[in-house]
Amino acid sequence: MASKLQAASLFDPAIFWRASIDALIKLDPRKLVRNPVIFVTEIVAAVVTAIFVREFVTGSGDPAFSGQIAAWLWFTVLFANFAEAVAEGRGKAQAATLRGMRSNVMAKRLAVPGIVDEAVEHIAADELRIGDIVLVEAGDLIPADGEIVEGVATVNEAAITGESAPVIREAGGDRSAVTGGTTVVSDWVKVKVTAEAGSTFLDRMIALVEGAERQKTPNELALSILLSGMTLIFLIAVATLWGLAGYSGTELSLTVLIALLVTLIPTTIGGLLSAIGIAGMDRLIRFNVIATSGRAVEAAGDVDTLLLDKTGTITFGNRQATEIIPVAGVQEKEAVEAAWLASLADETAEGRSIVSLAQEKYNLSATAKSNDMKLIVFSASTRLSGVDVGGHKLRKGAVDAVLKFCANEGNKTEPANFRGAVDRIAQSGGTPLALADGARLLGVIHLKDVVKGEIKERFGELRRMGIRTVMVTGDNPVTAAAIASEAGVDDFIAEATPEDKLRYIREQQANGRLIAMCGDGTNDAPALAQADVGVAMQTGTQAAREAGNMVDLDSNPTKLIEVVEIGKQLLMTRGSLTTFSIANDVAKYFAIIPALFVVTYPELQALNVMHLATPKSAILSAVIFNALIIIALIPLALRGVQYRSAGAASLLRRNLLIYGLGGILLPFAGIKLVDLTVAVLGLA
Amino acid sequence: MFVHLRPAFVLLILMTVLTGICYPLAVTGVAQAVMPAQANGSLILRGDQIVGSELIGQNFTSDRYFRARLSATVAPDPKDDTKTIDAPYNAANSSGSNFGPLSKKLIDRIKADAEQLAKESGGKRLPADAVTASASGLDPHISPAYAALQVARVAGARGLPIERVAQLVAEHTEGRFLGVFGELRVNVLKLNLALDRSKP
Amino acid sequence: MTAIGWLQIGILFALVLVCVKPLGGYMARVFQGERTPLTIVLGPIERGFYRLAGVDPAKEQGWFAYTVAMIVFNAAGFLLLYLILRLQGFFPLNPQGFSAVAPDLAFNTAISFVTNTNWQAYGGETTMSHFAQMTGLTVQNFLSAATGIALAIAFVRAFARSGAAYVGNFWVDMTRATLYVLLPFSVIVALAFVASGLPQTLLASVDVKTLEGAAQTIAIGPVASQEAIKQLGTNGGGFFNVNSAHPFENPNAISNLISIWAMLAISASLPYTFGKMAGDTRQGWALLLAMLVILVAGVGIAYWAEAGGNPAFAAFGIDPSSGNLEGKEVRFGVVMSALYAAVTTGLSCGAVNAMHDSFTPLAGMIPLIMIKLGEVLPGGVGSGLYGMLIFAILAVFIAGLMVGRTPEYLGKKIEAREMKLAMFAVLILPLCILGFSAAAANLPFALESLANNGPHGLSEILYAYSSATGNNGSAFAGLSANTKWYNTTLGISMLLGRFAYIVPMMAIAGSLAAKKRSPASAGTFPTHTPLFVGLLIGVILIVGGLQFFPALALGPIVEHLLMLAGKTF
């Protein structure tokens, strides 16, 4: 999957400078209060700064020490702000690109809606109101989101999707929606405006990409509560330590108590939490999927069941001919030739597949069309198509229709192996087409729904992740079962109506399962709205796009799988860094506690397992490590932890080992390293 | 909340009658009927005189008796009842010393006792229970090692052969329950009673 | 440490594990209202109680009504106990003629027994009449334990049910816990205790003329019946001042074995009950395993430290082979004392058979840590299970995301509301323990109560507030806690430690019960595997324990280092 909206590299200089400035702007306590852990850090940083100033002015205490602590506390806050700003910055860069497309467009509004070829008035696009009807001709930018009420046109939607090949949009049906900012390439359409300036799809997309509408997702909120709770607990532990130290006559300075507090509270995850969330949305955008809320991305990780349309997702959208079976007494060559001739003029995908089958598998060399060919076009009443050529009436079509045709031509008997072949094809999930030359039955064409090559493996992966796949199809149960087993889905809904889908989703949800689905038609809208994750296709109707909580700009239903993976990766990153952050505390205690009390109790030096140089360097090193680890983890927070599709047990084992055990051990080495540097530089 | 008042008070009264009166009285009835010796405190009679409980230690100061462990129990000071005086093996008020491991008082006490006992031990290492206070202040037992340490002194004071006293100690050394649980120990009161029996 | 020492520890745990399945399964039947062999006898009594109390056993309560009922019941219990203590001079069965218990001590003691703490700022044999011991203290031993079990069962139902508005009926759960679980087992254990040597009489004392001719007054009384429920209900409030170190409470290895078994039995079996009721016993075993791993580690450290003894003693020519015997009984030695200490504090029992105050520093730290970890190893009857479930929720929340799903435990999503309530519950412990300790450590009148100087004095303070807040009840008993300051602040700690924890816990139960239970799949966070057990242990130690590290460093840890350096205070 190529990235369409090019992602800026992690430390693109433009983003870097922009983020550095934003990090300073974000120091505003009114904004920072949304992030309690970092807010507390900012408050104590201010306190230590005041202490530094007092010590510096009065010449008391140790201003060199409190000054450095104050500086590193500010860095801790800034690094956290920077992480968020970088994550936002990447979105902002994309938003700027999008905004460029929304130049001032003039619209041609029909003065009297509904009357064709009436005079148009030229007004600015942002003056359009819902319900206005505009004329858009070849070369025009479509001025606003809307529904085509009349006409057919090819539209270049590259502005939104990045896809340069134009698509066809027409009135009525599931291809009637157009998006403001896209260009009509040929023909003309009349469009009924469905969104006013400021709330168009492009506007919403810009807002989402920028993160302006970002609200904490439910899990993020719960996690913030945990982090605030832990901050409070450590606040109690550190505040009371002053009293407990008083028992042994140890005077602890506010500076060192604050240093202890900041190293213990979960600043790492606190600082990176919102960056992780923004980066998750960002990853989706780079997959050309726009989520209307972070909640949807989170829900994607939780999905238990994927509802997948058979056509286009599990199978290549169209049935293909795979075999031509002659009946007894007919040469294969004759049957193949007849099939080929009957399909030559058939422009449907099925017809073309018969032609190519005849040419490729049966080595039929193409010969020019005869002039005396008379095409018989498929019609819903006859359910036949074919050609009259040289006295032959070649027909192909549904079995009963062809049998009826033969009967009319005077033949009511079926050759010996005809029914057997038909049944065999039907049993295998295929569609049999009968082939006749006038009254004579020639054979059966096997049309098959071809399952996509790699799809079975993907479903296997999903199953390992604990996700069930359910195929939705209009086919009859026999056909559906055959394809389901070939594709390896866990379940299927045959002869499905939109109501069936909705009912199935409700049933699953009643049992506590979360459902994801994708759809494009207006009749998909209720199910899209009901599903926990509803991915609407960009090519779909306006109703579908409004009902879903994600829009896939590529209109590729297979992408549902990636969406789920991105959701999982987001949650995994959040969990891994939380675990890492909390596990870090062990080492920090071993750095700071002996440093605080070694004067009163020299024996506590035994706890200084890292052999840090002096009490001051130990405290300073812990604070520095605590700040630097945020910077060090920004790439991981933005990229996400490495994702593998595996069962929960093996994921947990792996991540617990890396981020749990690693989180305990790494700071020992890290703090020691910082301490060595601090000692070499003579900072403390 | 008021709907809960009736069940709360009624059930509280019923439960008090059941678990606070019926239960202990029933257990008392059965215990007194079936196991009166234990139920009344495992008392030891000499003639018709109660000389103690085999479970409760006594204070022995005479050289003629095996000494029990240090006891940290106290009693109200008869002269000033806001204060207490040392009263070893006060079975009406059990107590340990509650000295922490770094207590200077503890270390000094052990040092003094150890120096005193070193004269008796003839240079051998002293058993820990000889210089430490028990948890209850009423520990009826000492270790076989502490008993062994005292054999010569008791034998000398009573004019008994050392072997005879050592044999009594061996007879009164109690093993582990099922050979596994608890520690080897000597019941001081029972041992001293046996001494009195063998030579008053 | 000796092989026979470890054998004693091993057999004891084996005896406990053997009863987990039958006892846990029995309790599941009891609380699901199924028939049990005892129904034929107890059924009529149970129904009679409901009729008199106006309780409809079929009518269930939501979490709020359940909690209010529990609080009203406990408040009534507090009131009755307080009155009995204050008025004991007017009641019969007072052979020693004790007068009223002082108001602050009566307040402290009543709270102490209602909250299942059984902190004793008094010496039983010198303060309480038989009437007060039986109708006051013993009754609350039953009822506070039954309350704990009932609450745990309500919490379990929150997981077992899906989309439910009700969590059970408090009156029914409490009555059944008393009648079907605590009472029958107490009768059996009490008689076993008498057989092993515990007295059971209504006399107050026996006067003895010792071999040396001195007068000795031996306090006695209905000991066995109170001991049985004290152990089974993880109450820990002894008949005598020195609790189970007293030869009448715990005369020998057999009674000691029964004591430890009895205090562990119900708490160790409740996780199985949880698994059974929630439909997956592996979940229960996982919780129990996590509990026991930390507990056994604690036993091991305490045993190791005590067996090593005090190096200062060895310097005076004292044989170190029997370990540190100051404050211990010869019949128990270091093994049974260390085992008892770790178990009684891993549970919220608080009975002691040795003086924790006189333990070597690291051995004394074990009980302190066990309590600070939240009394979940395996904790008090009921309270241990719901405490552990809160930890499981926290563990799932912190690490659960790592499998790529939002956290859920047993199919119930853990969301902001549960987290808010859980954090509120978790805050109580550091707030009371560290807050009051820091205050006491700087108040001259509070410091007067200390029996020891140096870091050990700080440990005594920390232990007192830990014990009270954790509803344990054991002590570094040198602390003279019968003062207005300690009676009051410890009373508050006990109240908050019990009820300020229960209310949010029950609110979580209500919120979880209402949630749909989603089915498990390969993508579900596995909560029955050894890996989860390891994670849970990590969360208990890091989230539950790390906050206390500075306090421990200034108490037992530095004391240990000072001991090695040969310092005294």
3D structure, described in words:
The complex is a heterotrimer of chains A (684), B (200) and C (569). Chain A is α+β, with helices and mostly antiparallel strands. Helices cover 52% and strands 17% of the residues of chain A. Chain A is elongated and about 115 Å long. Chain B is α+β, with helices and mostly antiparallel strands and 200 residues long. Chain B has a domain at 2-38. In chain B, a hairpin with a 2-residue loop joins strand 1 (43-46) and strand 2. The longest helix of chain B has 30 residues, at 5-34. Chain C has helices at residues 3-31, 39-53, 63-86, 103-114, 124-127, 130-160, 170-196, 223-232, 253-278, 281-308, 311-314, 333-346, 361-372, 383-400, 416-440, 444-447, 455-469, 484-514, 530-545, 549-564, and strands at 205-209, 215-219, 408-409, 412-413. Chain C is globular, with a radius of gyration of 23 Å. Chain C contains 20 helices and four strands. Chain C folds into two domains: 19-266, no CATH class; 282-564, no CATH class. In chain C, the strands form two sheets. In chain C, strands 1-2 form a two-stranded antiparallel sheet. The chains are: A alpha+beta (684), B alpha+beta (200), C mainly alpha (569). Chains in contact: A-C, B-C. Chains B and C meet through helix 1, strand 2, helix 3, strand 5 and helix 6 of B and helix 1, helix 2, helix 3, helix 6 and helix 7 of C.
* Extended strand count of chain C: 4
Please work out how many helical segments of chain A DSSP would assign.
24
The fraction of residues assigned to DSSP E strands of chain A is 15-25%
Query: Residue ranges of chain A: pLDDT <50 for 5 or more in a row?
Result: 1-8
Structural class of chain C: mainly alpha
* Largest β-sheet summary of chain C: 2 strands, antiparallel
Major sheet summary line of chain A: 7 strands, antiparallel
Largest interface: B-C, 101 and 131 residues
Q: Which outline of chain C best applies?
A: globular
Distance from N terminus to C terminus of chain C (CA atoms, Å) equals 28 Å
Q: Show unreliable segments of chain C.
A: none
Strands across the major sheet of chain C, in which order? 1-2
Strand content of chain C: under 5%
Element pattern of chain C in H and E: HHHHHHHEEHHHHHHHEEHHHHHH
Number of helices of chain C: 20
Binned, the helix content of chain A reads: 40-55%
Query: What is the structural class of chain A?
Result: alpha+beta
- Cα shape of chain A: elongated
The total strand number of chain A stands at: 20
